[in-house]
Amino acid sequence: MTKLLEWLLGVSLIGVAWGLFTFDLLDLQLPPQCRELAWPMPVYLLVVFGCYSLATVGYRVATFNDCENAAKELQAQIKEAKEDLKKKGLKINNDYLKQKSSSEVPLIPFKLPKLLRGGQTVKRGADLQSEGQSSENTRSGCELRNQSAV
Amino acid sequence: MASRKGNAKTREQPDKYSVLLPTYNERENLPLIVWLLVKYFGESGYNYEIIVIDDGSPDGTLQVAEQLQKIYGADKILLRPRAEKLGLGTAYIHGVKHASGNFVIIMDADLSHHPKFIAQFIEKQKEGGYDLVSGTRYRGDGGVYGWDLRRKLISRGANFVTQVLLRPGASDLTGSFRLYKKEVLEKLVEQCVSKGYVFQMEMIVRARQLGYTVGEVPISFVDRVYGESKLGGNEIVSFLKGLLTLFATT
């Protein structure tokens, strides 16, 4: 059964249950409070789901780990790789393997995200290396935004 | 497969890992990713090969690959180029045909995926006997570098919608840093029909359908191209179309 069919089935079941309670289709003589409760249920459920979605996505965006250490490590390894490859005889452009000073644009196309409309600022690759080394607290090099992030 | 005691591996071939690297205009990144792969595989001691599938890059990626082959050996760097840009799914099919390993690793060649995680993928696979192990940016200490708020919002939002609709049992569906058993990759690629992000999603969804087991390893994703190639309206629309197609057909 496809996911679409599963959903349609689920929605139908809920719809039938709602219809039964709201319109008393089985003629069970339900108390009026029951009917009053059941009647707006679909809208309530949608609203609850909407709130849950917003909260979940908001939480996940807020706790999305940033991997500054990984980026720093990568920059350092790129330098190391270029030196090693040059020794081993790799030839590309003349300036590809030359070391430039750290204040210049990094050698390889490290395209930095544009400074944004309302997001966090991102440091240039070269600047990252001159900062004090923050402790590598995760294997991946990503700082946990929430200690219990799963 | 019946379980065997003792030194079973001496009677079978040891595990070999084939890394598929589809490339297009990666002349500058290719040497770096190969260097990192050689470094980390060397340290881990696992047997490996790297298959470079270049789609006729006009920037000379293939020539760089040939130099790398001379440096590291033709047994470690295999070149299987194609004449023109033909898409990721066919690149995998093409690559797998020439893979001599029993496991295949797929990853991006632009340094957004770091080879240091491959050892973790391999350990995870051995630990659970998984048919495929997927790198996830959304769990544990996985994460991303180089994304602004907008990009993170789109990413998490899209992932949420996907989780609700498809309930796939994996946290990161659009990721493309994965380890597959070779026969599993072969089977899945011939079944998948989507393109782009949705192709990677389809691989996992179909894997679950066919009863394959999926393990996850948190990874860091260092995005260096986002600033210039933003995720635009077109891509979002085609993602949603692909998602709905998967929703209706799987």
TrEMBL record, chain A:
Keywords: Coiled coil, Endoplasmic reticulum, Membrane, Transmembrane, Transmembrane helix. It is found in: Endoplasmic reticulum membrane. The keyword Transmembrane applies. Pathway: Protein modification; protein glycosylation. Its main location: endoplasmic reticulum. The chain crosses the membrane at residues 43-62. It is a multi-pass membrane protein. One of its GO terms (biological process) is GPI anchor biosynthetic process. InterPro entries: DPM3. Residues 130-150 have a biased composition (Polar residues). It comes from the Eukaryota. PANTHER family: DOLICHOL-PHOSPHATE MANNOSYLTRANSFERASE SUBUNIT 3. Stabilizer subunit of the dolichol-phosphate mannose (DPM) synthase complex; tethers catalytic subunit to the ER. Belongs to the DPM3 family. Component of the dolichol-phosphate mannose (DPM) synthase complex. This is Dolichol-phosphate mannosyltransferase subunit 3. It comes from Onychostoma macrolepis. The lineage of its organism: Eukaryota, Metazoa, Chordata, Craniata, Vertebrata.
Automatic annotation (TrEMBL), chain B:
Its EC number is 2.4.1.83. Component of the dolichol-phosphate mannose (DPM) synthase complex. Pathway: Protein modification; protein glycosylation. Its main location: endoplasmic reticulum. Keywords: Endoplasmic reticulum, Glycosyltransferase, Magnesium, Manganese, Metal-binding, Transferase. Residues 18-188 form the Glycosyltransferase 2-like domain. It catalyses: a di-trans,poly-cis-dolichyl phosphate + GDP-alpha-D-mannose = a di-trans,poly-cis-dolichyl beta-D-mannosyl phosphate + GDP. Transfers mannose from GDP-mannose to dolichol monophosphate to form dolichol phosphate mannose (Dol-P-Man) which is the mannosyl donor in pathways leading to N-glycosylation, glycosyl phosphatidylinositol membrane anchoring, and O-mannosylation of proteins; catalytic subunit of the dolichol-phosphate mannose (DPM) synthase complex. This is Dolichol-phosphate mannosyltransferase subunit 1. Pfam families: Glycos_transf_2. Belongs to the glycosyltransferase 2 family. It is an enzyme of class 2 (transferase). It comes from Onychostoma macrolepis. Its cofactor is Mn(2+); Mg(2+); Ca(2+).
